Amino acid sequence: MKKKKSSLAAWITNLAFVILSFIALFPIISLLISSLRPSSELMRNGISITFDPSSISLDNYTYIFTQGGNYWSWFTNSLVISAVTIVLSLFFSSMVGYALALYDFKGRNLIFGFVLFILMVPFEILMLPLFQLMISMNLINTYTAVILPAVVAPVAVFFFRQYAVGLPKELMDSARIDGATEYGIFFKIMLPLMAPSMAAMAILQGLGSWNNFLWPLIVLRSNDMFTLPIGLATLLTPYGNNYDILIAGSVMTIVPIIILFIFFQRYFVAGLTVGGVKG
Amino acid sequence: MLPASRVRTQELAEPVKEPNKLFKFLNSKKVVPYIFVSPFILSFLVFSLYPSIKAIIMSFQSVLPGQITFIGLSNYSRVFNPTFYKALSNTTIYVIFTVLILTIIPIILAVLLDSKLVKFKTIFRASLFVPALASTIVSGMVFRLMFGETDTAAANQILNWLGMDSVDWRYNAWSGMFLMVLLCCWKWMGVNILYFLAGLQNVPKELYEAAEIDGATTMKKFLYVTLPFLKPVTIFVATISVIAGFRMFEESFVFWEAGSPGNIGLTVVGYLYQQGIQQNDMGFGAAIGVILMLIIFIVSFIQLILTGAFKKEDA
């Protein structure tokens, strides 16, 4: 009796999760299918549940690869901005996190307080003064303006600090005895040990930068300098005649991320749930 | 032994033989940490501290190109107008819905996923996580096309099949709010489930066994064993949801770009963007920003007090 009841419960729960997973994936699947359908129909009808299988074609992709216009500039811009942000923010944030974790120095707690301060102040309040600052530095409509405020990421500093606290300090001492410099210890010994946390942070920073919207929207001005989210958003008008680029372009924005996710799931999970690290 | 190795040792020893004073200074354990943190300090001063102070100063000024005048509190008195109240009430309703949905449902789903009932845990966990990967603009675009006004758009197709009338999703106050809440919950559900799953690993298994011996039902075990242990994670998830909710902008932008009919989608940050950037009224925008920050501080503070986060942890 009891067994029967619990197996029924198991059935219902599993079914519920199948449905929920389907709901979670449905918009992405619809996006994929819609990208294979005539864009004029998409604009007129929206995304329907039913579709005519005979209308399936790669036309939208042919179009975007041959006449993609600024789409490829957006793609390049997003790629360059994300790559530079990842490299710079990982480099600087790991240095700070490492120093906060493994050196005793005056002002350490103050600096850690600064990290928490940035974590608490919403970016939106800094936005207007930062925008003015970018204007006065003549950086409007440049990659630099998008990247600069993200160069030292407080979340990453916090995460690296938590990670570095657990690294063996004895390694540093024995390296010092062997005559290694402090910088050598960091770059050659400790940094490689921080690799797993690097991967998680690379994903957090990369995804954040790839999908970032409000700040780039403010500082990027000309269409050819736009990043993918901003460029795609400009196509999203009721009068738009660029739905072919919009839909195929959107697919190409998220598919690389999903492929990366399949291979590096562990690091994605660690990166996106970083807020959960205990302080 | 061999000449070759002797040469190598000499090479290695060379920097020690002529100690460079500057390098020795830069390499001392006292100085090194400051060098490591210096980029952060620089970036903190220029990109965080300076703009925060500047924002507060700007909120008392009228900022016109080449002409900045101190105007006292008049930006603030102008902020409290019907449009701002609309933005604030939209944002508040959005926060209440998203926080409730994104805290309660993930707890239940995480407990179920953690139980022995569910097979294929990894697949479910991964599929629920996927929405977090897509940018809000891209997924919002898909939602916008699925919730189109025509009878042929997915949402209305389903309504029609159920014998209901089509809805102009983006043109009613309630359905506009529904779209924004739905988009947000769809995106973050999987991430929040993971937070709670992590929290569940802290529940000692012996407690369940003890409760079972005492004859506790599944429901009682959930209420008296699981939930208390999930409290820290719950506070954390609720707090980040509140903050993210008050900062919301993209979910509204993707459905209505610059302006929604009757401001049904206007949010506080949307209003800040509209006034500060589009209308170039920076002092006014800064005042909205300061108010936003105060609201976030006060609400998170109240939340932390209510949930007892400041009480002394008695182990």
In terms of topology, how is this protein built?
The complex is a heterodimer of chains A (279) and B (315).
Chain A (H helix, E strand, L loop, with lengths): L1 H33 L4 H7 L13 H9 L3 H32 L5 H13 L2 H14 L6 H5 L6 H12 L3 H9 L4 H12 L1 H17 L2 H6 L8 H8 L7 H21 L1 H8 L7
Chain B lengths: L2 H15 L3 H6 L5 H27 L2 E4 L2 E4 L3 H6 L2 H33 L6 H9 L6 H11 L7 H8 L11 H28 L4 H9 L4 H29 L3 H7 L11 H11 L3 H25 L9
Antiparallel strand pairs in B: 1-2
Short description:
The complex is a heterodimer of chains A (279) and B (315). Chain A is mainly α and 279 residues long.
Describe the fold and architecture.
The complex is a heterodimer of chains A (279) and B (315). Chain A has 279 residues and is mostly helical. Chain A folds into two domains: 2-65; 66-276, Orthogonal Bundle (MetI-like fold). Helices cover 74% and strands 0% of the residues of chain A. In chain A, helix 4 (71-102) crosses helix 8 and helix 4 (71-102) packs antiparallel against helix 13. Chain A starts with a helix and ends in a 7-residue tail after the last helix. The model of chain A has no long low-confidence stretch (mean pLDDT 88). In chain B, 71% of the residues lie in helices and 3% in strands. Chain B has helices spanning 3-17, 21-26, 32-58, 74-79, 82-114, 121-129, 136-146, 154-161, 173-200, 205-213, 218-246, 250-256, 268-278, 282-306, and strands spanning 61-64, 67-70. Chain B is globular and about 70 Å long. Chains A and B meet through helix 1, helix 2, helix 4, helix 5 and helix 6 of A and helix 3, helix 5, helix 6, helix 7 and helix 8 of B. Chain B: It is found in: Cell membrane. Chain B: InterPro entries: MetI-like (IPR000515), MetI-like_sf (IPR035906), UgpAE/MalFG_permease (IPR050809).
Poorly predicted regions of chain B are: 1-14
Order of strands, main sheet of chain B, comes to 1-2
For the terminal residues of chain B, how far apart are their CA atoms?
Answer: 63 Å
Helix content of chain B: over 70%
* CATH class type of the largest domain in chain A: Mainly Alpha
Instruction: Determine Rg of chain B (CA atoms, Å).
Output: 28 Å
The averaged pLDDT of chain B comes out at 87
Which architecture of chain B does the CATH hierarchy give at level 2?
A: Orthogonal Bundle
Number of domains of chain A: 2
Strand content of chain B: under 5%
Reading the helices and strands of chain B in chain order gives: HHHEEHHHHHHHHHHH
Pfam families (chain B): BPD_transp_1 (PF00528)
Family (chain B): Belongs to the binding-protein-dependent transport system permease family.
Main location (chain B): membrane
Subcellular location (chain B): Cell membrane
